[in-house]
Amino acid sequence: MPRRSGRFAPSGSTARGFTLLEVLVALTVLAMSILFITRAFLIMLQVTNEGGNRTVASALAVRRLEQVRGGPESQSTSAGWTANFDSIVDEGPASFPAPYSRYSYQVLVNQVNLTPPSAAPSWLTGAPVHSNTIKWVTVRVTFQGQTIAQVSSGIIRDMYRRP
């Protein structure tokens, strides 16, 4: 009669193998490892997707800011520069055209006068007339209702200089 191993086998048995408990523990450890690795890949995929959305939003924000800045800067005369500068106003919220229609933007303009109130008038000092006005332009881009990119730049009113 062959000898059995394990708890119910007589001592001195030579049979080898795993018990059911050892197999269950090994399968549980394997299943948990696969679960954690899968979860890690899902988190990495989500972070990569969010990073891609931020990259696209940043590029769209810079593009819209350059369009706003390009108005005055593309003018060939000082009068054109000033007229385009004066026409820069708040915009939006508005959506970008396809294929970026899930992104929306808002242009915020804050006008700052750099001339202190106590400064002597230009007619008294003989200095050229400059308004010293800056428009601080901020473009804010949102994706699914959440702001994910924002860029700003200053545009000076009397910066027209053409050779």
Helix content: 40-55%
Query: What Rg, in angstroms, do the CA atoms define?
Result: 34 Å
Main pleated-sheet profile:
4 strands, antiparallel
Helix and strand sequence: HHEEHEE
Q: Give the spatial strand order of the biggest sheet.
A: 1-2-3-4
What's the number of helices? 3
The overall number of domains is 1
**In oligomeric terms, what are we looking at?**
single chain
Principal-axes geometry comes out as rod-shaped
User: Would you count the extended β strands for me?
Assistant: 4
Q: Average pLDDT, to the nearest integer?
A: 83
Q: What are the low-pLDDT stretches, counting only 5+ consecutive residues below 50?
A: none
Please give the alpha-carbon distance between the first and last residues: 110 Å
Helix-strand makeup class: alpha+beta
DSSP strand content: 15-25%
